[in-house]
Amino acid sequence: MPTKRLALTALTSALIFVVTWMIRIPVPLPIAGAYVNVGDAIIFGTALIIGGPAAALAAAVGSMLADMMAGVWVYVLATFVIKGTMGFVCAKICQNPCFTRFAAACLTGGAIMVAGYAIFEYFTFGSAYMLTSLPFNCLQWGGSMFIALVLYKPFMRIRRIYYK
Length: 164
Known about the structure:
Layout: H1 3-22, E1 24-26, E2 35-37, H2 39-49, H3 52-70, H4 76-93, H5 99-125, H6 127-150, H7 152-162
Antiparallel strand pairs: 1-2
Helix pairs in contact: 1-2, 1-3, 2-3, 2-4, 2-5, 2-6, 2-7, 3-4, 4-5, 5-6
């Protein structure tokens, strides 16, 4: 991995962690530390800006670190896989960037997040827990998508600088 891409991967991973950790809303679920966050907006932006496996790595590591800091260790491995997949798929959709493709990436990435956590929670905690957390995951998806779409132009400016 070239130095420039490695540095931007580390930077975006840290940014995903900070936004996820700092802008979070606790949710009333039996798992202590469960929360809704807007870090996915930065994952969507990262997918647009750096793309590919680098976006997947940044999404996986940044999100996983936030779960570790929150003390929700049961989610750490699931978050790594779900957010990494989300980042990779979003990056693939954004290979030829335009607003429509970015919106499609946000929709798809959010669906991956909601479905991934639903599957994980169903098998880990049961259907009642999964159904209780589903609206919170959808709220996170919608909020993050809205923020990412609002930030599309700044994300594209950063992408242009990165690809100079």
